[in-house]
Amino acid sequence: MNLKTWFVFLMISIVGVLLALANTPTIFEYHLLENQQSEINKSDEAFNKMMDVLTHQRCMNCHPNDNIPKQGNDRRPHYFGMARGEDDKGFQATNCNTCHNSENNTYSGVPGAPHWSLAPASMGWEGLTRSQIAERLVDKNANGQRSFDELLKHMTEDELVLWAWTPGIDPNGQEREVPPVSKEEFKNAVEYWLDNGAVIPTK
């Protein structure tokens, strides 16, 4: 191999190395990508914790898509032919507050919390996927024109929402099942998800 051939080979090698380096992320870029992926993972985890609660029967029973409140772990239609009616609280003769008071009735097993009612029809979640529920949750046309801050306050402070963790006993004297995520974990998950843009996972 003569000098000219060596020179051409050397130049090609240098160009190849430079091109490879140009397409190789820097250490800073690697850290940035790692941090971005970490934030995505945390947001997805928060989303799933939140949805573990919202899709649980303690929440889903009052978010029907057919205007019929559900009850029990098997989500059966409410006794006495109850329906949404006026202002999401049934009809005059079968108003929710006839039986459901501001707290659980430990004698009859009838659950209760302040302003007991169905969620608005626009917030019916029955039959929806987690992503579809999330889309409806942040849609101001569906959620009562709530901003993220107002949504956070509603989901982490409203006594009817938080009733899910103190549902009392059923008419048979059995403790009602609570969501699979603790109340504090739920509050933290909702806050994290909303504070980080309420990103809905694509998978």
UniProtKB/TrEMBL annotation:
Domain Cytochrome c residue range list: 38-197
Keyword set, alphabetical order: Heme, Iron, Metal-binding
Top-level taxon: Bacteria
InterPro entries according to UniProt: Cyt_c-like_dom, Multihaem_cyt_sf
Keyword Heme: yes
MF (Gene Ontology): electron transfer activity; heme binding; metal ion binding
Keyword Repressor: no
Record's protein name: Cytochrome c domain-containing protein
Lineage: Bacteria, Pseudomonadati, Bacteroidota, Flavobacteriia, Flavobacteriales
